[in-house]
Design a protein that fits this description.
The structure holds 3 protein chains of 3 kinds.
Chain A (H helix, E strand, L loop, with lengths): L1 H19 L13 E8 L2 H17 L3 E8 L1 H13 L6 E5 L3 H6 L17 H6 L1 E2 L2 E2 L2 E13 H6 L11 H11 L1 E2 L5 E3 L11 H11 L18 H15 L12 H6 L5 E4 L4 H6 L7 E4 L12 E10 L6 H13 L1 H11 L9 H7 L3 H8 L3 E2 L7 H17 L5 H18 L7
Parallel strand pairs in A: 1-2, 1-3, 11-12
Antiparallel strand pairs in A: 3-11, 4-5, 6-9, 6-10, 6-11, 7-8
Helix pairs in contact in A: 2-13, 9-16, 13-14, 16-17
Chain B lengths: L10 H32 L2 E2 L7 E2 L3 H7 L2 H32 L6 H9 L6 H11 L6 H8 L11 H29 L3 H9 L4 H29 L3 H6 L11 H11 L3 H26 L7
Antiparallel strand pairs in B: 1-2
Helix pairs in contact in B: 1-12, 2-12, 3-7, 3-9, 4-7, 7-9, 9-12, 11-12
Chain C lengths: L1 H33 L22 H8 L2 H32 L5 H10 L5 H13 L21 H5 L6 H12 L3 H9 L4 H12 L1 H17 L2 H6 L8 H5 L10 H21 L1 H13 L2
Helix pairs in contact in C: 1-13, 2-13, 3-7, 3-10, 7-10, 7-14, 8-9, 10-14
Classes of the chains: A alpha/beta, B mainly alpha, C mainly alpha.
Amino acid sequence: MKKRLLALCIVLLTAGMVFAGGSKESSSSEDEKTVVTLTFLGNQVQQDFLDKWIPLFEENNPDIDVQYTVLDWGTGKTKILSSFAGGVGSDIVMVYGADIPQWIEYGALSPIDEYFDPEMFIEVPFEMGKWNGKLYAVPLQSKLTGYYYRADKYEEAGLDPDNPPSDWQQLAEYSQKLTKRDENGNLIQSGFWVTTSHSYKTLTQYAVFLWSAGGSLFSEDGTKCTFNSREAVTTAEYIRDLLNVYKVDDAGSIQNESTDFAQGKMVSGVCNNAPRGMEISNPEEVKFVRVVPVPPIDANHTGYCEIGGDYLGISATCKNRDAAARVLKYLVETPEIVIQSCIESFGPPALKSAVDGFRAQSFYADVWNDLSNGNVKVQPLHPRWGEIQAIMTKALDVIYLEPNADVQQVLDDATAQVDAIIAESVPALGE
Amino acid sequence: MRKSNRLGLTKSEAHAGLIFVAPAVILFIFIRLVPTIYALFLSFTQFNMVKDPVWVGLGNYIKMTGDKEFFISLQNTLVYTIFNVIISAAVALGVAVLLNRKIRFVGFFRAIYYMPQIASWIALSMIWTYLLNPPYGLVNYILSLFNISKAPWLSSPSMALPTLIMIAVWRNVGYDVVIYLAALQGIQPSLYEAAEIDGASKLQQFLNITWKLLIPTTVYIFIMTGIFSLQAFDQVFQLTAGGPADATITVVLQIYRQAFQFGQMGYACALAFVLFVVIFILSGMSLKITGRLGETE
Amino acid sequence: MKKRNVIVNSVCYVILGLGSVIILLPFIIMVSTSLTPAAEVFAWPPKLIPSKIMFSNYPDAVAAIDFGRYFINSTIITVTATGISLFLNSSAGYALAKLRFPGKRLVFLFILGTIMIPVQVTMIPMFIMFRRFPLIGGNNLFGVGGTGLIDTYLALILPNMATTMGIYLLREFFRSVPTELIQAARVDGASEYRTFLQICLPLSGPGLIASGIFNFTNSWNDFLWPLIMTISPEMKTLQLGLSQYQGQYFTDWHLMMAATLLSCLPILILYFIFQKGFVEGISSSGIKG
């Protein structure tokens, strides 16, 4: 008897759950407000950001109700895909620059040319939001990947911080001088961070070096992968040697580059966020941080930075595009908002009207703006970038971590695989 | 007296039987059988979950035969499973034999060894990542006390899979110990006494009595842990995400990647179906060899 | 003779003790790190006992994410699923053990066979099927228009409402119940249902406990299915919430360890309360099988 009652209770509980739990029917249908849903990627910082700015928007736009969520970077991308597959994709979605074509396929982005004026934005970041000639996403902020280093550590090692390496040979030598190990050979201070086994940072680091050697991942027209060119091989060998010959780092030793950079466990690297931890934990040392383009391979080439960033767009399933556009324009065209995002996400603004304000608030503003106007390139865009990135990252891992691997062979294999993917779908637009 | 048929089976007993199993069976049909058939259908399509599926016939399966990553993942999965199953069982058997020696605190030890089974793989993976951190983790610290140089553990292509196996063994031993111990406790001491009188050494006693009697238990453990190991996802996802350099990519991880990171649902379903067939064949083989789990009533 | 025994037993204790330390080390570290100040998390050499015991890490961990909500979600889902599964598993297990009915062998093989189907085979079709579930989540009779079962508790409860392991365990357990007991009840005129509920079920304590704890553990620790089926952040389960401590730039290890410990607590408590019955329940499955 008791068990039967228990079972009955549980059944009732379940029934209650079905109707009560998890249903997100919005009750605002009587209010005649247009609902715009917004999804950001990030953590508590982004949550606070939206908590601050969205209510202001709603005050000034009483006919719109913005419902926003922040998903964490780890599982967020999967969630966004499932949500569009499940038909519950939000109206405005955040996307990292290089993922734009893939998300167009998912219906997470749609053309928004009619809402934005290119003149308001800096050209290179703005162009990244375009695909096949149409604008799909606008930048909230940019992120710059360059060669970051600590001037104080340079001086400690007897190097001149005003003269960073001018070519790869010097980079290797300087990094060696900056590396410290204890008597057992264990790494105390890494002279240069070599990224291995990371879902996107490995390839980003490699790509910037490749550009600085005069090579590129794809051909000009984007129909052929050039991951096995002479320059590509040289670049891969160079980074491999940094790790295995010059021993400026041990694979996997730097788990969080920004905290490690702040604590001096890592002195330099090609990344886009190294000093971020320092701003939080020891801001008095921020003045020691320098950033320049990645050194070119030799005097006959140019060094580059990579520019990316977080972009926002309107999904194909959005039913109230004008309302969504108003929210979107508010977020990316209001200088104060853009500036805060830039400071929190650690990157320069893409909005022209935010540049001066940003300069006043960020230590790196001048440096970044100079760099943004100089030699910058963007990652290649392709709808199947996820797979291509995985293939290339794996090839690089093999080369970096297995010093006896045949570099040309590994790159040839990877290139063949990427070519097969490109052949199946729309060609890449190149850089 | 109720009417019964030739077999002594009453109508109400048959009815009750069917009704008793009905909810579970219906549930399983709904959440296991139907999706599997649907997955088979999807495996013949190209599908990114948003647009409609596009029929490609055997395209996905043909692609699989040329997919090097798939074969690497299959190899990794099998290596992981075989070593995990065998080492866990061997270690567990040793521990169980020790525990069976009429020592005190048996329950206490058994509880301790079982503890890893309680925590989730996500929780355990976080802890192990922290422990195995190459420059600062505790494990490398302990090694350094013995003057052994720091090991890269999960960051090295050659060490990553063995490390995963080691962690899996650490977790599985407890479960195997509980089962082996119970089995050992079920063996009549008189068997050993008789053998002792016959002059058999401890080793001979172990081989001829203990081991022989434990074979059914061992098979059960092999099959159960084997099936679960072939499907291991959470820990691989959290610890290495398949890296470095695909050293730890397993079939289920590949399925997840294809489905949710590359948008290739159809191909993912094809991979999943092949995995199912592999598990089915391996289980079937094991069962045939031992003839267990057959209906004996 | 006795002396030899003492020595051998001592060696046993040492080996077992060493093994226990290895098994427990990660848990000890979890506790230690959960009480460490943030700056010391990667101190070298590592400190087992932190210089400052930071009990504040626990409230901080709970505050850092929507911990309470995730905990409640996990609890509702797991308790409901386990409760229902106790009933479904035991009735199915009983029928397979003691009742005779047409198609019994087929049913048994079918139930056992489903354990071979990896989650990955069924997860995508189930996602699609759940989305199209009629009359729930805004869907009409044909399952169009809304989101169906996606992002609901029911979607997370369903897969755990009956489990192969549970049915198998309980079948084994019921096989040990003497058939005479059941015959006697039948002779007395009791219906099959009464026989089951009033006579056999009360005897199945350890089996229910073992099955219950297994199911509870599986549901509580489940990661992949909730990852796919939940969309809105407030529907996340505790396991999904744990990954939130891993930021894009750095991980709050001290908070994460505190949260991890809290997430293990319910099962740990259940386990220690029901330990005896649990072990009894599992043991009976391995031997006879």
